[in-house]
Amino acid sequence: MSADTKEYRLHDAYVVVQDEKYDITGMIAEFQWYETIDSPFVRCDISMLDTVQFGDRLFGDEMVKLCFETYAAVPKDKRQSRDPERIMIDADLQIYKIGSVIKSERKKAYILHCSSPEIYLNESNRTFGALGPYAQKPEVIKTVISEKLKAPHKIKHDEAIEPHSNLNFVSPNWRPVDCISYMTDKVVRKSPKGQKGGKKVSQSGFLFYENRKGFNFHSIDKLCEQDTLETYTYTQANLSGNSRGDNAYRIESITYPERMNHLDKMRTGLYKNISYGVVISAISESAIPNGSASSSGIFDKLYDVYKNTKQIVGDAFNPEKAKSLSSAEFQDYLDKGKSTVNFYNAGGESDRSFNMDINANTMNWKNTATQIKTAENQSKPGGTKMPPAINAMNKLFEIASTLEEGFPYDSKKAESYMKDHPTRIKVKILPKYSNQTAGQPNNGADNAPEDILAVSNYASGRLSLLNTLSLTIKVPGNTALYAGSVISCVIPSSIQTKGTDTVQDDARYSGRYLIKGLVHHYNKEGITTELYLCRDSVPKS
């Protein structure tokens, strides 16, 4: 490959030590720039060859300036221009660790491990208290980034934070990023696009990450709906002619990390899983697994109370009449259902034995009829408001906005797996819903999903589906690429078409991919980029 396809320019590279700038361009042997949709912060590892004892001046938390660009990042139509449009990575970083030092003769070799300065603020700051519309903080993501991470400047474009439903919750002294992570599987897109069959569905599964464009809060479905940023082709290098233009988008090498692991998919519950929700502050409102609803202890006690109530109101199973009773009237009927429990001393002494009356709790007496009605629904455990959420992969695929249109599995085999019992049982902690009605759940978050458990289950399934197929490719360095963007790969098959010189594209592995992560590798010869790709579907045959 021609070296000029890896052409670069290192504009700035300096470290600030006690308010003084020290140019480290000549000391950099190489560096690696990391971005991934799995991480809230970018990272950079700078390998130093120090001949002037510069490392002795460092305390290990200094600020670093790094600015570089690549030839491949220049748009094709601007490459012949005297003033081409350039895409640079211009980053302010902070050292968080200095690696071990290797000393040889007159020089020292060590690595400066750097990240976004906000990584320090995330560790040192804590978020305590209510967030959401109820707390007059409806834009939770922007609030946390601005007030806790002190980085409103990293919300760099209008689409950085995808419009999503509101959520009320209380942060129990979490780190700022933990607050954002809590929301990722509990909010839904406000304006879903690209849904199959024109179905109106709730798409969840958000990711919070940083790339060269700043902070991002996007749904997986939104990322998959993007246009293709670049197209890369796996072919022989052009050894003659205009190699710069032809080879800038050539795939140097391809690695298939793991072609398929069906046992892993079963154990993670991709084919079929079930989720139960637990509300810590109100276990009786939690969808937790137990026996049939009609046999639960809670149901039996409430049912006895309800039978006493219906005798007075004169209308069987009328929740509204039951709720119309005053607190005093309701207590009277609760008293009719009281029982006496005897407690005996272990030694049998009668003078140390006692009995006590057990009364039903009257704190939530107005909700009793609703709880009873809910408990009668056999699909829900007794005293709950939310059924368990069962997720099957075929239904998930129908709802999701996928990169390609083809189902990525053997449909007959997958169907047989989905008919069996769920291979994964999940228990999720849910926020406490107050004053929930059909039109206004979660105390003012009027566009929040009413069945937050189903939404959360979709989110976990959506992430598993995204990682169905994966590739790792190496290409000439390109600072225009970023984690969370979509590229297209043209990969030829190993079989030549009979009677021709034509080689068909690999039908399974060619097509659109999401850049899950990338690494820009810099050394004195140039920059190469390693792309970690994934996708949830295959082209339709």
Short overview:
This protein is of the alpha+beta class and 541 residues long.
H/I helix tally: 13
* End-to-end separation: 34 Å
Strand content: 25-35%
How many strand segments? 25
- Segments where pLDDT lies below 50 for 5+ residues? 239-245, 288-303, 312-319, 337-384, 434-441
Rg from Cα:
30 Å
Strand pairing plus helix content: what structural class? Answer: alpha+beta
Question: What is the average per-residue confidence, as pLDDT, rounded to a whole number?
Answer: 77
User: In one word, what is the shape?
Assistant: globular
| Main β sheet profile | 14 strands, mixed
- Share of residues in helices: 10-25%
Distinctive features:
13 helices, alpha+beta, about 20% helix, about 550 residues, 14-stranded mixed β-sheet
Helices and strands in order:
Blueprint: E1 8-17, E2 20-23, E3 28-36, E4 43-50, E5 63-70, E6 88-98, E7 102-104, E8 107-115, H1 118-124, E9 127-131, H2 140-148, E10 169-174, H3 176-183, E11 206-211, E12 214-219, H4 220-224, E13 231-233, H5 243-247, E14 253-255, H6 262-267, E15 272-278, H7 297-313, H8 319-323, H9 327-336, E16 339-343, E17 354-358, H10 368-375, E18 389-392, H11 393-399, H12 411-419, E19 424-429, H13 452-466, E20 469-476, E21 486-490, E22 492-496, E23 503-505, E24 511-523, E25 526-535
Parallel strand pairs: 13-21, 15-19
Antiparallel strand pairs: 1-2, 1-5, 3-4, 3-24, 4-8, 5-6, 6-8, 7-8, 9-10, 11-12, 14-20, 15-18, 16-17, 20-25, 21-24, 22-23, 24-25
